[in-house]
Amino acid sequence: MFPIAFTEALDEQRTWIVPAGETLPGDVGAEVTALSGSSKAGDVTVLQRPSRRPARVLVAGVGDGHEAGWRAAGAAIVRALDDDEHAQIRLPDDAPEAAVRGLAEGLWLAAYRYRSAPRPPRTGTVEFVVSDSSAYAHGLAQAHATATAAWLARDLTNTPASEKTPAWLADQVVAEAATRPGLTVTVLAGDQLERFGGLRAVGGGSVSPPRFVELSWTPPGVESPRHVVLVGKGITFDTGGISIKPRDAMKLMKKDMGGAAAVIAATLAAADLSLPVRVTALTPLAENAVSGSAFRPGDVITHYDGSTSENTNSDAEGRIVLADALAYAAERLRPDLVLNLATLTGANAVALGKRTAALYSPDDALAQALKAAGTAAGEQMWQLPMPTDYVDYLRSDIADRISAPQGPGSVMAALFLRDFFGDTTWAHLDMSAPSWAESADGELTKGATGWGARTLIRYLSTLDGSQ
Ligand code: BES
Ligand code: MN
Ligand code: ZN
User: Fold this and answer.
1) Strand 337-342 and strand 356-360: pairing?
2) Can you give the pLDDT at residue 464?
3) What is the pLDDT of residue 223?
4) Given this model, what pLDDT does residue 466 score?
5) Which of 49, 252, 269, 331 could bridge 149 with an S-S bond, Cβ 3.0-4.6 Å?
6) ∠ at Cα 321 (181, 306), nearest 5°?
């Protein structure tokens, strides 16, 4: 990511940027006032001053001054700048920390390019002009950790499945963890997955065998810290298996590990920000392939907790691998809280459209806190019910449940998962829809959005250490 730094002085050699309604000194100030650029968040008005200095001035609308407006402004500004253009943004004297955080997040998030994109990353720098930067350093650090996490989640999700095998993804986690103190990683493979019957069944059809990754951040010097477990669906490609997907539905299925990407990135960010809570990311990684060794409709799977599921549609593979991970969390980690993120059902988009995740939780306070974190972070979710009327649909004649019952898709998946959380406080986010953007939109770039990483970081940042 290109550098963002603080400075006290305007420099005429750089492009000047000013929030709409703010003033600049001298002739430029008069020109900007006369221009009266739009104050709508995300609008940018450009003043060209050929053969004078500064040669360009941008007036950026920031809306009502909330963080979201600053984030939209940052995104619009970076899109208006050339890749090699050095710029300075003059902040109002009374700007809150949230302005710096939102602006920096918007600048970095909208500047994202896939790590092997044909177009190289932008090289121009940005300076925030403030008289005293000390009040803003933390906000900038938060934005940096958040954008770094979103970039990583997007990179992992955008990576083609030919490269992104479960082993490759596990290696990425090991490599990222090695760059930060306080993190431990365990990767389970082969015989070590004996109790993970769901993960073995789903991964069994692929030449690239499954992995189970446990990444943990332990804060130094916090006595018995609260322990949050983040579980993320990590299907590196979802063909649907024997219950194969139609071609259009399969096209984007490299993104089916977006939940895993988000929980890994958020856990790394917890280390970057040294958050005073213990965070463990669990990711079952597998490719749902079609082959002679793929699991079949009618097969009965034994999960980590010994309970069984009858596979009634091998395209409902996400809940099968997540069941093992959730049971592992409940038995082995005894967490205070479990948050599950998964690109779980097409029904998410049918119910809530392209930008909103479906939120499920029996705990209203947790649901409210997650929604608030999402709103602050710029990611939307909407709580859906888990009506017990539908539980009967899960009944199987030969196992504890079936995997793909009739009924409302996203809700049924949540009802399936419910059993595996044990008595831990939990929430589940079906993020199939917002994990991908068909075109650039505000701080989102075309392709993987990294959805969930930003919300998780916000939420984790609200928790204090000891319980
Ligand atoms: N990975 C898909 C869900 C999905 C669909 C994610 C579209 C992103 C965009 C999931 O594994 C799936 O196939 N779900 C099925 C479940 C059904 C068979 C019960 C679905 O939603 O159709
Ligand atoms: Mn599927
Ligand atoms: Zn899937």
Assistant:
1) unpaired
2) 84
3) 94
4) 66
5) 269
6) 105
Residue of the CA atom closest to atom 21 of ligand 1: 345
- 8 A C-beta contact, residue 228 and residue 460: yes
Q: Which residues of the chain have pLDDT under 70?
A: 466-467
pLDDT at 2: 98
End-to-end CA gap in the chain: 36
User: Catalytic residue positions?
Assistant: 245, 319
Phi, psi of 58 (to 5 degrees): -115, 135
pLDDT given for residue 294 in this prediction? 98
Span from the CA of 119 to the centroid of ligand 2 (angstroms): 33
Distance 432 CA to ligand 3 centre (A): 9
H or E segment and range at residue 235: strand 234-238
Record the pTM: 0.98
Residue 316, ligand 1, Cβ within 6 A: yes
pLDDT tens digit sequence for 26-49: 999 999 999 999 999 999 999 999
Q: Report how far ligand 1's centroid is from the alpha carbon of 304 (Å).
A: 23
The domains found in the chain, sorted by start residue, are 4-130 (3.40.220.10), 144-461 (3.40.630.10)
- Closest ligand 1 atom number to CA of residue 235: 1
Q: Is residue 432 lining ligand 1, measured as CB closer than 6 Å? A: yes
Amino acid code (one letter) for 424 = T
318 lines ligand 1 (CB under 6 A): yes
Q: Is 143 helix (H, G, I), strand (E, B) or coil?
A: helix
Pairing of strands 227-232, 278-288: parallel
List, for residues 177-200, the tens digit of each pLDDT value.
999 999 999 999 999 999 999 999
Three-state SS at 29? helix
The torsion of the CA quartet 133, 137, 138, 139, rounded to 10 degrees, works out to 70
Distance 341 CA to ligand 3 centre (A): 12
pLDDT at 369: 98
